[in-house]
Write a structure and sequence with these properties.
mainly alpha; 16 helices
């Protein structure tokens, strides 16, 4: 036992996860503590309108840099990493500007379909969300490459503090959905500034000195599997996650979409707290191990087992007592969110266990297969919700959607673990 404890204390992997998780824990604690306040300052309808705005901006933001930020970590030297960093940042800016030009044409339509004409001006915040999230992803992976986990942790705290502070202030001023959206933009911008200032402070000379347009073009071609496969795959994942917000808001009511978004946001807390920290550190460590020719399978199995053990308890509590807990914590009008939570917890658990496996997709170059899986998943999820719409039952929509997501995640996890065990040696380094 003493030797195990000593090994844990010496483990760089565990120390890095702890640093990330500690900062993220503070940020998520702020979110959880603020939830009962926000649920009383804003109606489910306000959350529903915001969820539609996020449903549009989310997939675009995830694909804004064409996922070249992942290649920043994989680059074999700092010169190539710097050029990839500039490439990813430039693409995020270009996509944000394109969104700014396009959004006026769809904003009015979304507001009309939700029967909320006053929501049309709020759609103009979508480009700001795309730019903030896209640029944040780029600086985040640069910090990941530099193993600058302390500042990454501080940025998570800053994001939560900034978001909640603005949302509470504007909620007290009765700004409705606008307060929720502006808070999200401010929190993302603050987190980006925190990491961006640190990046420029330490590495601006390196980045500028390394800039080489010809080399950037070579690297863009060398890592073209990221825009070809990773960006569409993650975009489809984001669209799949957004499908309920669209269907619920447009075919049931914005309030139903608000209940869904609020529930998912709370379920994401442990994933953000532990899962993302594990994924970032695991991705960096697995990449280095793979480049040295080491076996990844034991580390993958261990990480997946730990995540499964951590997740099973919360799932059982939510499934048994979800509606009562939401009623007690957030007020009677949020009891429906607890009903949604019972089913969404099943999907969440499989996603939480899938964190380490997902991190290995670019390492093993499995992007084409998993892009196909995501396309099939999007079709199945949309079909599941369409069936529920036919019966006019929003709870059935959430249940079918969650069951499909659970089965897909189980398949993904099993496939990657099997691949790591039997096929790692056949992947080109």
């Amino acid at each position: 036992m003493k030797s195990i404890i000593a090994r844990i204390r010496r483990s760089t992997f565990i120390k890095n996860v702890a640093v990330l998780a500690s900062g993220t824990a503070v940020g998520q604690a702020i979110v959880v503590l603020a939830a009962p306040v926000l649920s009383r300052l804003y109606s489910p309808t306000a959350f529903g309108v915001m969820s539609v705005v996020l449903a549009v901006s989310g997939p675009i933001a995830i694909m804004a840099s064409f996922k070249y930020e992942l290649a920043v970590v994989l680059a074999k030297d700092d010169r190539d990493a710097s050029n990839l960093f500039i490439l990813a940042g430039g693409l995020a800016l270009a996509v944000s500007l394109a969104t700014l030009l396009a959004i006026p044409f769809i904003g009015d339509w979304l507001a009309y379909e939700m029967e909320r004409p006053t929501a049309a001006p709020l759609m103009l915040w979508i480009p700001a969300l795309v730019f903030s999230q896209g640029l944040f992803n780029v600086v985040l992976f640069w910090a990941n490459r530099r193993q600058d986990y302390v500042w990454t942790s501080l940025s998570a705290v800053g994001r939560s503090v900034g978001t909640v502070a603005v949302q509470v202030i504007l909620g007290l001023a009765d700004r409705g959905a606008k307060g929720l959206i502006v808070g999200r933009v401010f929190g993302l911008a603050l987190a980006t500034v925190i990491l961006g200032v640190q990046t420029l402070k330490n590495d601006w000379r390196l980045i500028l000195r390394s800039f080489d347009f010809a080399r950037m073009r070579e690297l863009a071609r060398e890592h073209d599997h990221f825009p070809k496969y990773n960006a569409p795959r993650e975009g489809i994942v984001a669209i799949s996650a957004s499908v309920p917000s669209f269907f619920l808001a447009l075919l049931f009511s914005p309030a139903a979409a608000g209940l869904y978004w609020f529930t998912v946001r709370l379920l994401e807390v442990p994933t953000t707290l532990i899962g993302i920290a594990v994924r970032r550190v695991f991705f960096e460590r697995a990449t280095r191990a793979f480049q040295r020719g080491e076996r990844i399978y034991p580390l993958l199995v261990q990480a997946t087992a730990v995540l499964s053990a951590l997740g099973i308890g919360p799932v059982l509590v939510i499934f048994i007592a979800g509606p009562g807990l939401f009623d007690l914590a957030f007020g009677d009008e949020w009891r429906g969110a607890g009903v949604y939570a019972r089913w969404l917890a099943i999907w969440w658990f499989s996603s939480f266990c899938n964190v380490a496996s997902t991190a290995l997709i670019p390492v093993f170059r499995l992007q084409p297969l998993f892009l196909a899986i995501e396309i099939v998943g999007l079709v199945l999820r949309s079909g599941a919700i369409a069936v529920a719409v036919f019966f006019g039952d929003d709870v059935l929509a959430i249940a079918l959607y969650s069951i499909v997501g659970f089965l897909l995640n189980v398949y993904r996890t099993g496939y990657v673990i099997r691949f790591a065990k039997y096929n790692q040696d056949f992947v080109p380094t």
